[in-house]
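Weekly structure sync, notes
Attendees: PL (lead), two postdocs, one rotation student
Agenda item 3: pending single-chain targets
PL asked that the sequence for the first pending target be pasted directly into the notes so everyone works from the same version. It is reproduced below exactly as submitted, 217 residues in total.
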Amino acid sequence: MTQSVEQASTPTTPNEPPKKRTMKPLIMVLLLSLSPVIAALLVYYNPQWRPDGNTNYGQLIEPQRPMPSATELPLTTLNGEPFDLKSLKGQWLLVTADSGGCDDACAKKLFILRNTHAMNGKNVDRIRRVWFVTDNLPVPQKVLDAYVGTVIVRADPATLARYLPVPLGQLETAAGLAESMWMIDPIGNLILQYPRETDPIQLRKDIGKLLHSSRIG
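Predicted structure, written out during the meeting:
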C-alpha cells in the first residue's frame, strides 16, 4: 500500500517532442562521394595544377608533326644511297642532328642516346637511334665504331628544320638543330623535344613510361 502511494506521488515527465531530421549528413556524404570527380575535373581543365611527376621531362610538340616523305625530306646514307625515313616507322626513334665532324657536344648526345637505348632491356628492339648529319664532312671512324647501330643519314639542314623544331631564339640552321634531341613515335609523329644538355635519367624515364603504356612499336 505504501509503495502504491509513493508511485502515485512521483511526478511524471511529459514525452519530449521528436527531433527534426536534418539533411546535413546526406549532404556531407554526397560531397565526399563527389570530391574525387570534382578534383579530377579541376585538374583536367587546369593543367598547370598537375603534379610534375605526371608530366613528361621532354617538351611536348603540339601539334604533332607527321614524318615527312622521302620527297619532302631527301636523305642519303653515308654511301650516298637514298634513304626513306618512313622505313623506320613501327619503332620509337631517338633522334639527333649535328655536323659530320662530331665535336665533343655531338659525341655526348650520341652517347646519351646510345646508353638510354641500351638501358631499356627487353624493349631495346622497339627503339632505333637516328643521327641526321647536317653537312658533307666525313664522320670519323672512331665515332662510327663507338655508335654502331645508329642510323646515320645526311640531310640538308634548312629542309630538316622544317620538320625538326629548333629551340626558341635559335636560327633554323645546322647550329640551331644541334641544340636539341627529339623522339618520334611508331606511327611516325614527332612528339617530344629535349635540350642538348638533357638529363639521361629523365630521358630514360620518359621512354620507359611511353613503352609501358604503348601498344604499338
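Discussion points:
- The two ends are 99 Å apart (CA to CA).
- The beta strands are 59-66, 75-77, 82-83, 92-98, 127-133, 151-154, 180-184, 189-195.
Action: rotation student to compare against the earlier draft before next sync.
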